[in-house]
Design goal:
alpha/beta; Rossmann fold; seven-stranded parallel beta sheet; 7 strands; 45% helix; binds NADP nicotinamide-adenine-dinucleotide phosphate; fatty acid metabolism; SDR; lipid metabolism; EC 1.1.1.100
Amino acid sequence: MLLENKKALVTGSSRGIGRKIAEAFLSEGAEVWGMCTHESAGKAELEKLAADHGTKFHEFYADAGNAEQLTAAVKGALSEAGGFDVLVNNAGITRDTLSFRMKKEDWDSVLAVNLTSAFLVCQIVSNDMIHKKTGSIINMASIVGIHGGAGQVNYSASKGGLIAYSKSLAKEVGSRGVRVNCIAPGFIDTDMTKAVKEDIRKSWVEGIPLKRAGTAEDVANAALFLASGMSTYITGQVIGVDGGMGC
Ligand code: NAP
């Protein structure tokens, strides 16, 4: 098993991509602490999956946009776990509208949940990883963090910031054995993208070289690779999981 005896923290583990990452990690033997805002519909299933693989799933709750709540919750999980080998900052939101219509609170909330929360969680978790001289941090960016996206200036800025942040952190902590990478998904079928109208979805899919939307499993597979011993010489990178959209 790729993550036997490893401990992982995954934010945004209740649904979509984060849920599939939690499943992939548990199936490879990791003990997983999953964070979301409230008890998830899949909690019992994840606990069973963990038991089936001889490990444990722990769900805990915090609003990633609330620095105090987030910090207290992550410190609690870290002390319960006694340290994490893998951290996935995956929790994310959109508040899309054209820039000239965007309210400052929609700018602030997206930056807080998508970017500032990753900084806060990394600060707590990486401090411990540095002392143990090992760890893999995976930050969930987006293709629009590289190429931009109309109607998403707040979201694109948060993801572009997350990429620059991750590359900078990789340079700071590499000599201590800690790796930091980003995944940049393209168009993935989850709750986040289900509001997209069918005709727009069709035209997007037409523009994807692999001619399909991605699945949460497609992204989870990349996270598993970056979390595991298969990627020990990879840091400061952005792995696109986008069917060729960004090429
Ligand atoms: P999703 O289905 O909407 O799930 C979002 C997850 O984030 C949920 O677990 C949710 O928990 C959690 N979350 C949201 N706000 C939170 C908050 N304030 N505090 C704590 N947890 C919070 O989204 P997804 O599509 O899986 O996206 C996961 C990540 O991939 C995000 O960072 C997103 O930006 C990125 N991404 C997605 C796509 C895509 O096409 N889907 C493309 C590029 C990048 P609750 O259930 O408690 O709300």
